[in-house]
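Figure 3 (text version): structure tokens given as input.
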């Protein structure tokens, strides 16, 4: 048994294969807590604890995981899942290991609580109000359309709607309340925010007890996904490094660090989502965990920083300096794109897929990773957040983004009637 064993809570190799690759590069054992048993344990995982209801009722499993971590002599606890961040913090605290305070995680995860913390610390955000989910929401006085309506505590843009009329507002508020109530986190609020026009950045931070390391500034592009006749925000691509001016990136980093500190976070990875408006950078969300999707893989490709290893090192309080992956040439830029079904196909969940055609003309050497989660002859899982994803590379961010968009636009699906 290694003296550097780490417990990863919430193992999802399909969506984050880079985590396993990073763990292979470090010395030390890994044990995992997962909802469903792994049929085999890939290296370096040497043990698993299957926890029924891990994602739906995470707060109920602290004691069991503390007991498991103690038995396995773990020296660090880490998660890469939003809904398990509070559980991970509580388990680390129960084991006496480094990690963010559970109260700080709760502040960051709670949309209303984080907005109050930001306002108290003078960190630029947006005006907001909230109403209990059980009450019918009304358009607040002093707010102008467009507005943003969202559940008080969900992630991944779930239930986050742009509304442009009172009729849309009432439908979005009711739907956000239902979606929030069905989530794994305690959530009895609907937030109403003033929409901020501008473009999106994310800042990736590693915070130990004394220092803050800025790992990346990424561009993020959103569109809208139709949900029950409403417009739900939907991430369509990201790229690293950012294309924005250096001064703007530096301002974004300062605001991101201030936001994380306002929530009381330390000894954790932090993913801060920002909107750059005409009057400056404003905080959209503070997430007490690693950047989602393939942000860590893009960072490694372009800077050499082994992002997932940084998360593990932080969990063991050994982050000086952020570790870099060994070997491999760095690329100039990387971009992430998502495969989604064309609008004209409508809702394809549960339908059988007859044929997949790949019609893009992007050279193979520009495609670093391509994952399709659908296959010919099978039914499409309606729970999938998208149909797959691609990381494309280029000499510049513009080149990488163009390649990723060409690949995602070049997928043609033929469904069985």
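Below: residues designed for each position.
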């Amino acid at each position: 048994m290694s003296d550097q064993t780490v417990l990863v809570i919430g193992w999802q190799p399909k969506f984050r294969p880079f985590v396993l690759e990073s763990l292979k590069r470090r010395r030390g054992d890994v044990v995992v807590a997962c909802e469903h048993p792994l049929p085999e344990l890939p290296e370096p995982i040497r043990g698993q604890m299957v926890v029924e209801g891990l994602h739906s009722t995470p707060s109920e499993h602290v004691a069991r995981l503390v007991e498991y971590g103690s038995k396995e002599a773990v020296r660090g606890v880490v998660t890469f899942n939003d809904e398990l961040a509070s559980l991970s913090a509580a388990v680390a605290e129960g084991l006496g290991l480094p990690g963010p305070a559970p109260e700080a995680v709760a502040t960051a995860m709670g949309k209303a609580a984080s907005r109050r913390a930001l306002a108290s610390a003078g960190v630029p955000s947006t005006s907001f109000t909230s109403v209990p989910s059980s009450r019918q929401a009304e358009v607040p006085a002093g707010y102008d359309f467009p507005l943003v309506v969202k559940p008080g505590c969900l992630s991944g843009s779930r239930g986050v709607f742009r509304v442009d009329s009172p009729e849309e507002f009432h439908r979005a508020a009711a739907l956000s309340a239902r979606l929030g109530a069905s989530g794994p986190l305690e959530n009895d609020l609907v937030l109403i925010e003033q929409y901020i026009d501008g473009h999106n950045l994310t800042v990736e931070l590693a915070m130990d007890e004394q220092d803050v390391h800025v790992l990346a500034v990424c561009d993020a592009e959103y569109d809208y996904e139709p949900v029950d006749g409403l417009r739900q925000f939907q991430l369509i691509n990201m790229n690293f490094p950012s294309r924005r001016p250096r001064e703007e990136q530096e301002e974004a980093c300062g605001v991101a660090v201030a936001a994380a500190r306002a929530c009381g976070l330390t000894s954790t990875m932090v993913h801060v989502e920002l909107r750059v408006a005409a009057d400056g950078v404003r905080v959209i969300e503070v997430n007490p965990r690693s950047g989602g999707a393939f942000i860590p893989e893009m960072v490694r490709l372009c800077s050499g920083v082994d992002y997932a290893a940084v998360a593990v090192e932080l969990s063991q309080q050994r982050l000086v300096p952020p570790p870099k992956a060994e070997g491999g040439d760095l690329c100039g830029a990387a971009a992430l794109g998502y495969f989604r079904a064309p609008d004209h196909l409508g809702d394809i969940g549960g339908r059988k897929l007859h044929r997949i055609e790949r019609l893009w003309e992007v050279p193979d050497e520009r495609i670093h990773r391509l994952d399709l989660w659908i296959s010919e002859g099978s039914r499409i899982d309606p729970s999938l957040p998208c149909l797959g994803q691609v990381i494309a590379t280029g000499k510049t961010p513009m080149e990488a983004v163009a390649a990723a968009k060409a690949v995602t636009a070049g997928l043609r699906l033929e469904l069985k009637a």
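The longest helix spans residues 246-262.
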